[in-house]
Amino acid sequence: MKKIGVGADDAALEIKQTLIEHLKERGYEVEDYGIREGADYPDVAVEVAEAVASGEHDRAILCCGTGLGMSITANKVPGVRAAQCHDVYSAERARKSNNAQILTMGQRVIGPELAKTVVDAWLESEFAGGSSARKVEKMEEIDRRYHPAETT
Ligand code: RB5
Questions:
Q1: Per the domain annotation, does 152 fall within a domain?
Q2: Catalytic residue (choose from 52, 60, 62, 64)
Q3: Does residue 69 have its Cβ closer than 6 Å to ligand 1?
Q4: Measuring CA to CA, how many Å separate 112 from each of 5, 24, 39, 55?
Q5: In 21, 65, 96, 122, which residue has its Cα 20 to 30 A from 15's Cα atom?
Q6: For residue 108, how far is its CA from the centre of ligand 1 (angstroms)?
Q7: How far does residue 144's CA lie from ligand 1's centre (Å)?
Q8: 109 in ligand 1 pocket by Cβ < 6 Å?
């Protein structure tokens, strides 16, 4: 697995640090998209999502206060599937069913221990293919419909 990108806004700096340390302990390489002065969640999300769309990272984790702004923004980048997950079942399904390359979480929603467990479940789950492949292809077709230049 390539390096995992991790980004956060100023509402999620503690959880970002917790997750970076956790990922390193688990043997993953991490690229920390540290917060620049004045950066809001859309600024961080688009930078990380573009790195995923370009193939620089196969997986990334984005945290903000709720996980919502990061998810909404990242999903605007063609080819990106970002899923907000605060429970283990959703994290597994985000990989197995939706092939989500980005996990988003909210520091104001989830505690550090559960967040680490959610991250592990998401990283250890793989896309199941089968009938899910058809559904993911349909999402990709929607990307192409709205962004023909970026996705051809
Ligand atoms: C703070 O800017 C807060 O709105 C943000 O971290 C996030 O929760 C937005 O979705």
A1: no
A2: 64
A3: yes
A4: 18, 15, 23, 28
A5: 96
A6: 9
A7: 29
A8: no
Average pLDDT (144-148) is: 92
Tell me, yes or no, if 85 is annotated catalytic. Answer: no
Q: Which domain holds residue 17?
A: 3-146
Q: How many domains does the chain have?
A: 1
Q: Is residue 136 part of a domain?
A: yes
Cβ contacts of residue 152 below 8 Å, gap of 6+?
A: 144
Residues 18-55 pLDDT 10s: 999 999 999 999 999 998 888 999 999 999 999 999 99
Q: Tokens 């917790």: give the residue.
A: 18
On whether residue 127 sits in a domain, the answer given is yes
CB of 9 closer than 6 angstroms to any ligand 1 atom = yes
Protein residue whose Cα sits closest to atom 8 of ligand 1: 65
90 in a domain, yes or no?
yes
Q: Per residue in 46-105, pLDDT tens?
A: 999 999 999 999 999 999 999 999 999 999 999 999 999 999 999 999 999 999 999 999
